[in-house]
Amino acid sequence: MAVRDPYEVLGVSRDADQDEIQRAYRKLARAHHPDINKDPEAEERFKDVSEAYAILSDPEQRRRYDAFGPDFRRVPEDVDPNMWARSRAGATAGRAGSYATTGGAHTGGFGEDIDLEDLFGGIFGGRWRGGDRRSAWSPSRGADQEAEIEVSVEEAYRGTRRTLTLNRPEGPRNIDVTVPAGVTDGQRIRLAGQGGSGDTAGDLYLVVRITPHPRYRVEGRDVYTDLPLAPWEAALGTTAGLQTPGGEAKVKVPPGTSSGRRLRLRGRGLPNPRGTPGDLFAEARIVVPPEPSETERRLFEELASASPFDPRRS
Question: What CDD domains has UniProt attached to this entry (predicted)?
Answer without folding.
Answer: DnaJ, DnaJ_C
